[in-house]
Specification:
The complex is a heterodimer of chains A (335) and B (263). By secondary structure, chain A is an alpha+beta fold. Chain A is 25% helix and 33% strand. Chain A has 2 domains: 229 residues, Rossmann fold, CATH 3.40.50.300; 97 residues, RNA polymerase II/Efflux pump adaptor protein, barrel-sandwich hybrid domain (OB fold (Dihydrolipoamide Acetyltransferase, E2P), Beta Barrel). Classes of the chains: A alpha+beta (335), B mainly alpha (263).
């Protein structure tokens, strides 16, 4: 039995069905991301787990106990918000110790735990500061420490990195993941950023219009998207249409369907092991460092492909006629 | 700005200051003339030495403090709840809190006397304590517009909804949220509301006189009708109290440590 079970969860605001038959089983210690475009219901799912919204129907169980009906302050669930939400009138140490103080923990235990948490987030000396004296990244780390200090059963994070600048965003997401691993805490992380979700999750739930379209590891989600939406939302995609007989460049694929290939599945020239060859003309060249992203017109579509940079081979010039090859096994059928 | 407009601005300022300060100067000057031919503080000494002054002033200070406590207990949770759960009700609540500015105090007190007289279902005016309580509630009503505005403005500077949810997820109940998170964060606003309340209550006449309580306002009126110099000294003292309250509002606003970030 999974540690956190969400079954047939529904939520409507008036006539607006925001979450539809949402199901998810999370194992203890797992890091799950809810990924989807803005407005697809991610926050609403999280808020129902936290107890800030009541589900219209469905169940949420932790360790077999149903949470529905329990008030948010009785659930022992840690929450991190996009806007940090530190208490402005309390110092960093008082913020982190807040949950334990509510629980009535003795002074010495609170102090010890606060010191431990501040060391964990790498801010051991900032206990006496007020939130307004910290940078955004530091505030969010304190918010994380505050949520973790009372040892919650589940940690929820709602777009915790969205308000931060790009560099801090990447370093903090790795830090969050490292801390999560160290503590082994069951975590649900909401984001609309696919790169974020792919890089740190054990599993990803891709949401679309209140529905969980696909649940899987980042590898599965990226390489075997089960719906057209997931294929388009996660990663870059080149879409090819077959001709009336279901052929693409003379290879039989199946009539009436579109097929997609990731940029890294297309090769410049005839690569070994490929069975489809498309004539193409290079239209854009983006040198990204270790990777070169090319855009080309092929088979009536504009496609992009990635090649690794090789110091001895300069990239093709714009307007060059080339051949692109790919393996039909790498094609993702779109429903 | 062109020179003529600038000149006009200065002229308006000077006129405003004269309009305000000339009567005040006259007031102060006259209050110092109790002894023939020289300026002295005799009038002030007499006023402050008057046991009735001490008694009525003490009574009004106490009533002001009680009023502030009642006001805070009513207004802070109400403004908090309206912001958190019933944002649609804000215009209505605001309208209600503004009513005391429109309805004269005399109407309120006659209403009270009618509703709570000795032959009514709740004979509040029948005992001293009951009348005191009635007076405190009357003062709370008079102070409501100022208290509510101040607290609501204070709540606007913090993210009430998210802070509340953060506290809830850490196990806090409503009492803790209000007492440890909301109130401390709007304390400056509450204090400025409190000082305004204090200034209003200290000088208030109508409610205290009609409920027949020994407050400072009726005392001012009585002295004014019967003595030559003392009323002027009292008026200056009243001014001083009001101004001190205004000054204190400025002071707490400046000295609050954690709100500086928002400015
Ligand atoms: N309290 C609410 N009342 C009415 N509609 C809401 C409420 N909260 C969210 N919604 C609606 O539910 C939908 C999903 O919102 P949300 O869960 O916040 O999406 P996400 O977090 O994925 O961006 C949106 O269309 C939003 O307008
Ligand atoms: Mg959201």
């Amino acid at each position: 039995m999974a540690f956190l079970e969400i079954s047939h969860l529904e939520k409507s605001f008036g006539a607006n069905r925001v979450v539809k038959d949402f199901n998810l089983d999370v194992d203890k210690g797992e890091f799950i991301s809810l990924l989807g475009p803005s407005g697809c219901g991610k926050t609403t799912v999280l808020r129902m787990v936290a107890g800030f919204e009541n589900p219209s129907s469905g169940a949420i169980r932790i360790g077999g106990t149903d949470l529905v009906g329990k008030r948010p302050n009785q659930r022992n669930i840690g929450m991190v918000f996009q806007a940090y939400a530190l208490f402005p009138n309390l110092t960093v140490a008082e913020n982190v110790g807040f949950g334990l103080k509510i629980k009535g923990a003795p002074r010495a235990e609170i102090d010890r735990r606060v010191a431990e948490m501040l060391a964990l987030i790498g801010l051991p000396d900032l206990g006496g500061r007020y939130p307004f004296q910290l940078s955004g990244g530091q505030q969010q780390r304190v918010a994380l420490a505050r949520a973790l200090a009372p040892k919650p059963q589940v940690l929820l994070l709602d777009e915790p990195l969205s308000a931060l600048d790009a560099k801090v965003r990447v370093s903090l997401r790795n830090e969050i993941r490292a801390i999560q691993r160290e503590l082994g805490i069951t975590t649900i992380f909401v984001t609309h950023d696919q790169e974020e979700a792919l890089s740190i999750s054990d599993r990803i739930v891709v949401m679309n219009g209140g529905i969980a379209d696909q649940v899987g590891t980042p590898f599965e989600i990226y390489n075997r998207p089960s719906t057209r939406f997931v294929a388009h939302f996660v990663g870059q995609l080149n879409v090819f249409s077959t001709d009336g007989a279901g052929n693409l460049a003379g290879v039989q694929l199946g009539a009436g369907r579109d097929f997609a290939a990731r940029p890294e599945a297309l090769h410049l020239g005839r690569a070994p092991g490929t069975d489809i060859v498309l004539p193409a003309r290079i239209s854009e060249v983006h040198f990204l460092g270790s990777v070169i992203r090319l855009t080309a017109d092929a088979a009536g579509a504009r496609v992009s492909l990635d090649t690794f940079n090789r110091p001895d081979v300069p990239p093709p010039a714009i307007g060059t006629d080339v051949e692109l090859s790919l393996s039909s096994r790498d094609l993702i059928p779109l429903g | 700005m062109n020179p003529i407009a600038r000149l006009f601005g200065w002229a308006a300022l000077v006129f405003g200051l004269l309009y305000f300060f000339i009567p005040l100067t006259g007031l102060v000057e006259f209050s110092l003339k109790a002894r023939r031919g020289v300026y002295s503080l005799d009038a002030y000494a007499k006023v402050i030495g008057d046991p009735e002054f001490q008694a009525t002033f003490g009574y009004s200070v106490l009533m002001a403090l009680v009023t502030i406590v009642i006001g805070v207990l009513i207004v802070v949770p109400t403004a908090f709840w309206v912001r958190l759960k019933m944002p649609w009700a804000r215009p209505y609540v605001e309208f209600i809190t503004l009513l005391p500015l429109v309805i004269p105090a005399i109407v309120i007190v006659f209403g009270y006397i009618r509703l709570y007289n000795t032959s009514s279902w709740l004979p509040m005016t029948g005992s001293v304590m009951g009348t005191n309580i009635l007076l405190a509630f009357g003062y709370t009503v008079l102070a409501l517009p100022y208290m509510y505005r101040a607290v609501d403005t204070g709540l606007r500077t913090i993210d009430v909804a998210t802070l509340t949810e953060a506290a809830q997820s850490l196990g806090a109940g409503w009492g803790t949220i209000l007492g440890r998170i909301i109130l401390p964060n709007v304390l400056v606003a509450v204090l400025s509301g409190a000082f305004l309340t204090f200034a209003i209550v200290i000088g208030e006449f109508t409610l205290a006189a009609l409920l027949d309580r020994p407050a400072f306002g009726p005392y001012l009126q009585r002295i004014g009708a019967n003595k030559p110099y003392e009323p002027f000294a009292l008026a200056v003292i009243s001014f001083g109290i009001t101004w001190a309250c205004m000054g204190l509002i400025q002071l707490v606003t400046r000295f609050s440590k954690h709100t500086r970030a928002q400015n």
